[in-house]
Each structure stands twice: as structure tokens, then as C-alpha cells.
Amino acid sequence: MPHLTLSHFLVVSALLFGFGVLAVVTRRNAVAVLMGIELILNAANLNLVAFGRYVAGGISGQVFGLFVIVLAAAEAAVGLAIILAIYQMVRNIDTSQATTLKE
Amino acid sequence: MTITQFNIASASWFRPELALTAGILLLFLLDVLVRKQSRYRVAVLTVAALACVGVAAALLAFQPVESRAMFNGMIASDPFATFWKWLFLGAAALTVLIAARSDEFPSPRIGVFYALLLSVVLGMFLMATSLDLLMLYLAIEMVSLPSYAIAGYKPGDRRAAEASLKYVIYGGVASGIMLFGLSYIYGLVGSTNLTALGVRLESLAAPASAGGQLGLRVALMVAVIFVLCGIGYKIAAVPWHMWCPDVYEGAPTPFVAFLSVGPKAAGFALAVRVFYSFLASGGGPEGFARGLADVPWPAVVGVLSAVTMTLGNLSALHQNNLKRLLAYSSISHAGYALMGLAAASQLGVQSVMIYMLVYLVMNLGAFLAVIAIAQATGSETIADCNGLSRRHPLLAVTFAVFLFSLTGLPPLAGFVGKWYLFVAVLSHYAGDGGAWYVTLAVIAALNTAISLYYYVRIIRAMFIEAPAGELVVRPRVSYQIMLGTFSAALLLFGVWWNPLIEWTQASLTFLTRG
Amino acid sequence: MNYILPGPSLLDKLAFIVLASAVLGFGLLTVTRKSAVTALMALIGACCALAGLYATLSAHFLAVLQVLVYAGAIMVLFIFAVMIVNRDDEQPIALRGLFLRAAGVLGAGYFFYRLAWIVVRERRADVLATSITLPIPEYGNVASIGRLLFSDFLFPFEAISLLLLVAVVAGVLVARPPRPTPSGDRERVA
């Protein structure tokens, strides 16, 4: 195996991003879709840290990653709160069943 | 040359935002302190929210108008940002006034609504001023998170809950993809600061490195498309518009009125600042056409614009719910405004600013009319407009004014807005790709004709159809005043548009990169 | 102390192989498992393995936070949500609609094709092929992160604190069920 290079990390993060997008498009359970979004955010974070290490030379990428973790927490809190609110109403969180709005 | 200010010294260019922050905290406190069942609750909270917006506006008026980067290059203060801040504050104040007399916010919940609304406004301020990839992402989230919650605001309403679920899922995906794109941009240039970014991208795009760096340019292309994804979601442009009709139908109407003008305008402000003033290699919007991975970005934006307006208008044709109809109409208006960005010139940017300003008034007016109709009839379909001209002539006439202005007919301000967009696009007639610009203008003209059809459907219902039953339509006094003022403004600026031109012209000064 | 020394050592490569395959394996499980609980457990595994990857990149503080905040706090939120609304997918891999299916496959295919192209073609390009060098001793530790956080990134730091407050209020506002009070008005929320 050659030396560890930036591209190794980029491939891992791109695959992770792909899994996240796949989860978003294929899962019908709203919580699972939110998990897909978490995978996307984690992939971006890995990019930030790896780029920070190899390219930028500073730690600004890591600080960016820190903020992303906090924002992910906020987003997950609001998203899950909405899912709970819907669940209290309809006892069902299948995104394809949320069709009252369609005409 | 960019003046960069450090943390403490920046505070004096930051007073409006500080006022908004204080207002948010104050409203959270007041919401708990003012008694729930008190008769004056709504009045106290509304006055507090308006006062906060007013103080922010006053501080904005006295803020020195020089371009500078603040907080170690995190956000900018320049005439361009100030223009958008005025627009956002105006939208916020009008939304507070509309919401105060709306039935959709029961008095126990209105305090939190005002606080969240102000935090969205603060987020939009940051969107229009951010100079750093991190700030850009943070600002978008700051606009999105409270919006998700307000969209699901009606307790026990299934439609509202579903709307907010769709909103949070589409929004989360769009911002996640955007973040992934931002991480690539960070990697390509090794800095999060837009000022450094533009300079570095220029060297990446330089012909000298054309051969070996091809892969980097492809990565840059992917990154820019991903970032466009996040911005397209905010302005509800076509591949990212799916959330729009559902959220507009399910969310409380006063907030929808705000959502259709505020975040959309903020998205345009962000797009202009990022793509025209920093990523455009070689200064100004014109550089956008040449730079960035050799992709003809104005053409990409032009295609987006054509698809957005066409799809929005065609989908609006068969809508019977007024809010859904206005949702599709707002998508098509995003398409029209994108024409200004596709023009990639100073004139194009100016035309977008004029259009968003006019669109603010006419779209808020149209939603206000829908609220007034829904208050009388209890639902919001086109059939509810039947015979409105005989029940309440003022409401019918002003609604017609808003709809004609949205179509872009003279002598209304909507015409001026659209006229400048066409001028911006057609000024490329003789230049590179002139035929494509003409095609874009023709598509926009055809779309205007299509949109006339569905707007006139409403007008026909109001003026020709017979009223069904003996329903009394009596809009609240404050609504009548606002309807009258909005239509008067549209008429006034439809014939005397010099102030709009002068103001936007003066606001075209960006903070440019070093 | 950097226990996982970033450098062209065998140990480093071994750590990368183990951690990267853990991240990707758990990530794939997250997508494909029918049961939401299993998927969530896989996601937690992926988060922890990612923390390991951060450590190989000398982002020690971020690695700790990844475990504490991501695998800890955020995932606990998810666990609560899954436990309350425990519903498994009938068809874990079922793209909705032909158009979405085609668009998803084509988009993902194109993305990976481009990516593979970049990696293969640009293997020798200086940026992508840079071998890692030993960082300065304080790279990625708490002190250096803190210094940056309270100087260059002070403004976003303050902004995000306000955003968190707003998000908490927004979450409470949405999640609390409405209860009618004696006067008939809805109970105040938040």
C-alpha cells in the first residue's frame, strides 16, 4: 500500500456522502432520513479535517468541523421535535404517507 | 483595499444586529412575563417586536456607510448589505403588523413567533453580509431552523406538521449538500475566507495550470454546483422547489408571506455576494462569466431561470388553493429574478435588487388579501373569491392591483421590476451568446403571458362570478390600511421609479476583495 | 502526546484501513438495515470510527468531541426518537418514483465516476499525493483550538450560541403537544 495521502480520506468521505444521499432518497422512515443527513454532515466534516491537515496547514478546518457538529445538534433537535409532533398526531412517520397536502 | 476590523472595534458597525439580538432575548423574556390570558398580551408583544425592529432601523440609518470587513473578516458592512438590511427590516415590520391581527397566532403563542421571526431576520442579515464559508453556512442554518419550527406552528394541525416535516428534511439535505460543497472549496483553496478564496481560485483557473490541474477544476465545478444547491433551496429555484407549495399551504399565512419574500431575497443577496464579488475572477459580476472552472456559469443560471419560471407557471395553472397558487407563482418569480443573475453584469445585479424590492410589496400584499379572504370565508380557494367585488370593493380592487403587478403590467411597479430584468438580459444582445440571452428573454415573455392566465382566473372570480350566499367580508381596519398603502405604493412607483433606481444604484458598492 | 503518530508508518496505515473500513461498513449498514434501531447503532459505530480517523489526522480535540457530542449527545436524541416512534421500514431500499430512481442512480453514478477519474488521473498531482508530515506538537489540541475559537472565530462562536438558544426554543415549541386550558385558549408553549 502506498503512503497515506489526502485522496484516501477524500474517497472515504465521498463514499460516506454517497451513503447519506442514498439513505435520504431510499428510506421512508423520517428518522432514518435524518440519519442520512447526519451521514452527509459527517462526510463533510471528514473532508474539512483532512483538507485542514493536508492543504491549509492550519486548524481552521477543525474549528469549522466543531461548528458543524454544534449545528448538526441543533438541526437534529428541531428535526426530531417535528417528527415527535407529527407522531403525536398521526402515530405514523412514513414520509410517503404524509400526503394530506397533495391535491 | 479591504479594511478589516477586529472583534471589539467592529461592534459600532454592528449595532442593528445587536439590537435584533437584544430584541430576541427581550421577547423570550416578555413572553414568559406577560400574563397568558391578559387582554393586552398581543398588544404588548407586538409593540415590543415593532420597537425592536424600529430601533434596529434607526441604528441602521445612523450607521456609517463605508465598506469594511468586520470581526476578523467574518462579515461585511457595505452599502450593498445595507440595502438588503432595509428590505429585511421592512418585511419583518410588515409581517409583525399582519400577524398581530391574524387569527392564526393565538395570543399564547405569538411571543415566541415574534422572537423566532426576529432570529430569522438576524440570520438573513448574516446571509447578506457573510464573508466566510463558515458564516455562510451558519447564517443559512440560522434562517432555516426557526423557519422549520414556525412552519409547524399551528398546534394539532396535521397539514402544518407535515409541511414542517417536509421543510426540515428538504432543508437538512440541501444544507448538508451545500456544506459538502463548501468543504471542497475549503480544500481547494485552503482557507475559509472568501477574500482569500477569490484570489486563490484565480490562480487555480489561470491558463498556466490548465493541463495538470484539470481534476481540481472538476472538483471545483462539483463544489460550486453543491453550493448552488443550498442557495437554490433558499430561493426555491427549480430542482429544489419541491418543499415550497406544501410549506406554503401548511404554514401560517402571515409567516408564508414573510417566507416568500425574506429568505428568497436573502438567498439572492448571498448568491450575488459569493458569486459576483468574490468567486468571480477579475472583479465585478462580469468576471463571473469567465472564471470558475471554465464552466459557462451564466448559461447554467440562465437555464435554471428558464426552467424555474416555466415549471412554476405551468404548475400554477391548475391550482385552486390560493396559497398553493401563490407558492408556484413565487417559484416562477424566483425564475424571473434569476434572469438578472444570468445577465452577470452590474445592471443585472441592480435589476435583481429592484425586483426583490417591488416583489416584497406586491407579494406581501397578495398574501395579505388571501388572509383577509380566509378570515371571512374560512378557506382559501379561488372559489372563495367569487363576487368579492360586490362584497368588499376595496379588497377586490387592491387584490387585483397586486395580481396585475405580479404579472408585470404597466403602470404598476411590477412592470418596472420586470422591465429592468429584461433590459439587463437584452443588453447582452450584441455580445457573446447574444442569441441565448434573447431566447431567455422570449421565454420570460411567454411565461408572463402564461402567468396572466392564472392571475386573471382569480380576478375573474372576484369581478364576474356571482357571490355564493350572503357572506359578509369585512377585513380588519389595519389590513384595509395596509392594502390601500401597498397598492398606492405600487401605483406610485409604477410611474415614478427614479427613487428605486437611485437607491439601488447607490447600493451597488460591494466590499471587494483585497 | 500523539499516540497515533501521523507519518508514513505501518501502524498508521493499519489504523487507517481498520477505521476507514469501519466507517464505511457502519455507514452502509445505516443505509441498508430495515430496523431503525440497528441502523442507529450502526450510525453510532460510524461516528466513533470517524473519531478515530480524526485522531489519525491529528485532530485530537475534535475526535474527543465527535465521541462526546456526536456519538454521545446527538445519537441519544435519535435513540429517544426511535424508541418513541419505533417503526421499521418495510422496504429499506425502495426508491420512490421512476424519475427519482433514475435521477438518484445517474447522479450518484456520475459523482463517483468523476471522483474515480480525479483520483486516478490526479494521482501524481502535488496536492492529492502529498504525503503527510509530522505536525507541530500543539496541532489540533485544546489550547490551539481555543486560541483560534476566541480570536478569528469569536463572532461565529457568539452567533452559534444564540442559534442554539433559538433552536432549543423552536424545538420545545414544536414538540410540546397543545392542551386546551379551561378558558378554551390553547396552553402556552415554551
Structure explained in plain terms:
The complex is a heterotrimer of chains A (about 100), B (about 525) and C (about 190). Chain A has helices spanning about 5-25, 30-55, 60-90. Chain A is mainly α. In chain A, helix 1 (about 5-25) packs antiparallel against helix 2. The longest helix of chain A has about 30 residues, at about 60-90. Chain A starts with 5 loop residues before the first helix and ends in a 13-residue tail after the last helix. The mean pLDDT of chain A is about 85. Chain B has about 525 residues and is mostly helical. Chain B is built from 20 helices and two strands. In chain B, helix 10 (about 245-250) crosses helix 13. Chain C has about 190 residues and is mainly alpha-helical. Chain C has three domains: about 1-85, NADH-ubiquinone/plastoquinone oxidoreductase chain 6, subunit NuoJ (Four Helix Bundle (Hemerythrin (Met), subunit A)), CATH 1.20.120; about 95-135; about 135-175. Chain C has helices at about 10-30, 35-55, 60-85, 100-120, 140-150, 155-175. The model of chain C is unreliable at about 1-5, about 90-95 and about 180-190 (pLDDT under 50). Chains A and C meet through helix 1, helix 2 and helix 3 of A and helix 1, helix 2, helix 3, helix 4 and helix 5 of C.
Strands across the major sheet of chain B, in which order? 1-2
Shape of chain B: globular
How many strands, which pairing sense, and closed or not: the largest β-sheet of chain A? none
Q: Rg of chain A from C-alpha positions?
A: 17 Å
Helical coverage of chain B, percent range: over 70%
Number of helices of chain A: 3
Mean pLDDT of chain B: 86
Main sheet: strands, sense, barrel of chain B:
2 strands, antiparallel
Largest chain interface and its two residue counts? A-C, 71 and 88 residues
User: Structural class of the secondary structure composition of chain A?
Assistant: mainly alpha
For this structure, the quaternary state is heterotrimer
Shape of chain A: elongated
For the secondary structure, the number of strands of chain A is: 0
Strand content of chain B: under 5%
Average pLDDT metric of chain A: 83
**What is the end-to-end distance of chain A?**
57 Å
Give the helix/strand class of chain B. mainly alpha
